[in-house]
Every structure is written in structure tokens, then in C-alpha cells.
Design a protein that fits this description.
Elements lengths: L12 H9 L3 E4 L1 H4 L14 E4 L7 H13 L3 E7 L6 H15 L3 E5 L13 H6 L8 E6 L14 H16 L3 E9 L2 H13 L6 E6 L4 H10 L6 H9 L1 H4 L6 H13 L5 E7 L4 H10 L12
Parallel strand pairs: 1-2, 1-8, 2-3, 3-4, 4-5, 5-6, 6-7, 7-8
Helix pairs in contact: 1-11, 3-4, 8-9
């Protein structure tokens, strides 16, 4: 059903989504990127493509993926997971390879999914303090709308909030553009509450909200549990209880529309753009984004 606002503003669901999906970003891994013959046939030029660095992935594979994406015309943002980086010399080497091979000027700094640090780094703030990211044009950090029990083991958000305030203070004095890229969620309510809480705490870093792309319900539930998705997991579990919906693929239409509608009513709302996790495949995700108003890939002779 269409959502109607004042005639001079946004009037339809389609228009809401079109505005909200402009300049979306998407995440890939080297092994998933290998399955795509040419990203130019799927994504708009200059789309920001994050490259997830999973523990055990050789840095050569990461750099090769970054180089390929840059050559195809995309803005590349590799992950730097603090807890899998042995020491400062390794970090300096990784950055040198990314910059030398792929002219990388953007990075996502995060603690990483492992519980015990491999070496000297435990969190993204230590990566920043190394000074090795000075000169980068854009730096993003992980955001957790539904909390992170790896950081706040009591289920609260005290440690996470202290870290965000530290990053806000850093952003206030840094030249690089900074933002938060969040874990994927499935319910707008907790996200809206979290974003408003950040604003109340004086944190105005732009939010790039994590959205799980279309996928089989069983696939999403598996990833959501593995990634520690919080209360909004119940949206999937409720859907799984409905036999008529169990075998149908999930699409994020309702979640994204709810956030877009809230943004239309509250233009100062902290969410700036959408960041996709293509859990059901990059091609499927890119097609959904285009069908719902995201910019289409430009025709290319490179096929």
C-alpha cells in the first residue's frame, strides 16, 4: 500500500525508496566477488563496495579484489579487523599494498569477529591511534543498533557508547569523512530508537544502516544467529512459523520502507544511506535495489 505525505514532498512508497536507496553500498568477499564476471553490469558506477576480511583470507586475495573493483570503476572500502592483525608492521604493509595496487583511500575499521586478539590490536580505536590511516579520505566504524555482547557482555551498551563518543571526538578534529556502518537488522523500531539515542548522546556520525539483501529465510536465520543479531531476529522467527511464508524468499522491502518513511517525516534522522549484505547473492541483491529505486548499472561494452 502506498504511503502518502504532503503533496509537495514524497507521495508514494516507490518515491520513498528511490530517495532512500540512492548511493547505497554493498559488501563482498574475495570468494564471492570471483563469481561475478563484471560488477559494472550489476552496480552503478562509483558504488562503494566494502571488502570483508574474514580471518584466514590471504591479504593478496583482498588486495587483488580491491584492485579489480577499482579498475571497474568502484569506490573500494576494505575491512581492517583489529583482532586479526598481528602488529603495526603488518598493518602498515597491508595499507601500503592496498594503496600501491588499488589506490585505496577508504577503510572500515572494526574489532573483528574473533574473541581473542591475534596480536597487538583489540579495537578500532587502536588502529586509528597507530597514525597509519592519516591521509585516508573516508573512515567508517561498526555500529550495533541491537547491542554487541562481545563488547558489552552484560547486554547493555556502556562500553559501546563510550567508544562511539571517543570516535565522535576524533571525527570532530579529523580531516577524513567518518560514518557508522551497522550490522544488518530486520525491524525498523529498534534501529530508530538506537539512532535517536545516539543523537541524544551528542553522536552525529552519519549512519549507513545494514540491510540483509533478499535470501532464503533459512539462510538469513543462520547468518543472523551467527552474527549476533538481536531482538529483530524475532521478525524472521515469526515468519518461519508461518508455513505459507516459510519457503518464500525474504526481501527487505518492509524494513527499508519503514526507515525511508521515518526519514521523510524526520529529515534530520541520523540514517544517511543503506549498506547491503548480499546474503542471497550479489546479483539478486543488486536486482532488488534497482527494482526498488536504486540507481541502475550503466550499459557497458565490457561483458
Amino acid at each position: 500500500m502506498a504511503l502518502f505525505f504532503k503533496p509537495e514532498t514524497i507521495q508514494t512508497t516507490a518515491a520513498l525508496l528511490e530517495g532512500f536507496l540512492q548511493d547505497y553500498s554493498i559488501e563482498v568477499m574475495p570468494r564471492t566477488a570471483e563469481k561475478v564476471e563484471d560488477f559494472r553490469t550489476l552496480l552503478p558506477q562509483k558504488t562503494r563496495v566494502y571488502i570483508a576480511h574474514i580471518e584466514g583470507t590471504p591479504i593478496a586475495d583482498m588486495v587483488a579484489t580491491a584492485k579489480r573493483l577499482r579498475q571497474e570503476g568502484f569506490d573500494v572500502m576494505p575491512h581492517f579487523p583489529a583482532r586479526i592483525i598481528p602488529d603495526r608492521a603488518t598493518l602498515a604493509d597491508w595499507i601500503a599494498q592496498y594503496q600501491g595496487e588499488a589506490d585505496v583511500k577508504q577503510a572500515l575499521l572494526l574489532a573483528g569477529g574473533v574473541s581473542t586478539p591475534t596480536g597487538d590490536f583489540d579495537n578500532s580505536m587502536q588502529l586509528l591511534e597507530s597514525g597509519l590511516f592519516d591521509g585516508f579520505e573516508r573512515l567508517h566504524f561498526a555500529g550495533h543498533p541491537e547491542g554487541n555482547r562481545d563488547i558489552d557482555r552484560d547486554g547493555g551498551d556502556r562500553v559501546v557508547m563510550e567508544a562511539l563518543k571517543w570516535k565522535q571526538a576524533y571525527a570532530n578534529r579529523a580531516d577524513a569523512k567518518m560514518a557508522l556502518a551497522t550490522q544488518f537488522c530486520f525491524e525498523a523500531g529498534p534501529v530508530i530508537k538506537w539512532a535517536d539515542r545516539l543523537a541524544d548522546e551528542g553522536i552525529d556520525l552519519p549512519i549507513h544502516i545494514g540491510v540483509a539483501g533478499p535470501a532464503k529465510l533459512q539462510t538469513l536465520i543462520k547468518f543472523a544467529i551467527a552474527c549476533g543479531v538481536g531482538p529483530s531476529l524475532k521478525v524472521l522467527q515469526k515468519r518461519a512459523m508461518n508455513v505459507t511464508k516459510l519457503l518464500l524468499p525474504y526481501a527487505p522491502t518492509e524494513f527499508v520502507t519503514d526507515l525511508a518513511a521515518h526519514k521523510a517525516r524526520h529529515p534530520d534522522f541520523g540514517i544517511q544511506s543503506v549498506h547491503f549484505f548480499p546474503l542471497g547473492g550479489i546479483k539478486t541483491n543488486a536486482a532488488w535495489a534497482t527494482e526498488h529505486g536504486g540507481r541502475a548499472a550503466q550499459p557497458t561494452s565490457h561483458s
